[in-house]
Write a structure and sequence with these properties.
Blueprint lengths: L1 E7 L12 H21 L8 H10 L2 H4 L6 H11 L3 E5 L3 H14 L3 E3 L16 H12 L9 E5 L2 H8 L5 H14 L8 E8 L5 E4 L2
Parallel strand pairs: 1-4, 2-3, 2-4
Antiparallel strand pairs: 1-5, 5-6
Helix pairs in contact: 1-5
Amino acid sequence: MKILFLLYTQAEGGAPGYLSRRGEEAAGNLAQTLFGFAQDTLKVDIDVDYERRTQSLQEDLRWRAYRSPSSLPQAVRASHELFGEILLLSGEHFRTLKTAEPVSQMCALPVCVDPRMDRSSDDKPLKGTLADALRELTDVHLATLASVPRCVWVATSQKALLEWIRPLMDLEKWESCREVMQQSTQNDLQPAVFACGFERSSDGTSRWVID
């Protein structure tokens, strides 16, 4: 099993529960970038059944019912059945969800919400972290699917992302990555995308591939 993961951070917040005007523009630009990457680089035809998927997201009540942590397994399966090439996931902080919203709308794909996806070990109360969420996703939820998506897009937070990748690379590389991310996000105001691969061999051994 080989899957490409794109983890992207939050856009700037504004009024309580909303992004700022600059944050909304950044989230929209991010959605266009991810859509173009899927179409042009991955050669995923997102236009297949686009109208049917859009209608489902607007009218099918199950997508709203799938917004709780306990419904994540059903949400992953249902999303994969709707469109099997790309899977969208998000943490539950308003900045994370508002950043993921344009991506969902542009690609006509539901967002599977897992509160741990944008949490680090410093967040209280501690209910799990991005590392926990990704481990469960790869070991349990994706492993039960008849086929796996080609790409998984995860809306997370910069803090959670940096904590997750720390054990996956040496200190010098991580510090360089942190510096680049802080600069590219203007100190966590603009979204940044981190790409990596996940592999599981036939003997069950798994690893994250970070270039």
